[in-house]
Each structure stands twice: as C-alpha cells, then as structure tokens.
Amino acid sequence: MDSALIRTVYLVEDSAPVRALIAEMLGHVGNVVVAGEAETAEQAIAGIRATHPNAVVLDLHLKNGNGMDVLRAIHSEAPEIVFIVLTNHPTPQHRRSCLDAGARYFLDKSNEFARVNEIVGALQAQGA
After folding, report:
1. Domain at 8-126, CATH homologous superfamily
2. Domain boundaries in the chain?
3. Are 31 and 3 in contact (CB under 8 A)?
4. Which of 113, 110, 119 has its CA nearest to residue 82?
5. pLDDT digits (tens, 9 = 90+) for 53-92
6. Taking the CB of residue 49, how many other CB atoms lie within 10 A of it?
C-alpha cells in the first residue's frame, strides 16, 4: 500500500453528535480509521501532534478557540496533512483565510457534509 494514502483522519468538532456522524461516515471508506477527536483547539493541536494523521476534518468554531488556530499551528509543522474544513460559516472571507493558511478543502456543513466521505475516499484511492 502506498504510504501517501489517507489512512488516518483526526476529527476536530465541538459537537459530539457531529463527530460521531463523521466517524460513522468515514467507517465506510476502506482502510481509513479515526486517529482521534477533539472539541477544543488546544486538544486538537496536542492530539494531532501526538497521532500525526494523514488528514484532519476541522470545524472553525470550537470550544475554547477556533479552527484557524489549529490550522495555522499544524500546517506550519506538517504541511503534508490534508485539512478539510467543514463549517457552518462558509463566508468568502473564511474560505480565503482557510485556503491561504493551508486547508486543501473548504466545505459548507449545510449542503456539503457528505463530501467529506467522498474526498477522503478519493484521496485514499489516489494517494493524496
């Protein structure tokens, strides 16, 4: 198996039910496991550093911090990690800021939620 394939995904989302739904969806992508979960920026940064996942599904609004803090901290250390921002705040300014900071994907929770599974599956198939 190609070492560049997406095998581990870290979930950063302040809503436990939403994290559970994303984890369940990702369970349908072959050979992909959830490496860890966080609901705060501090937990996310520590957890991502500890597990070094291939991809991160990242909400922008978190308990005690925000996703941009996580994106900036981790992308500068590990630019190979694929960041998939999944937010309820899909403003053009947020999109530009996230993409400029290193996110590869920026999705609107209200109408692109299922694309997380599609994206991770496609990255798994093509080797990120």
Report:
1. Response regulator (3.40.50.2300)
2. 8-126
3. no
4. 119
5. 999 999 999 988 899 999 999 999 999 999 999 999 999 9
6. 12
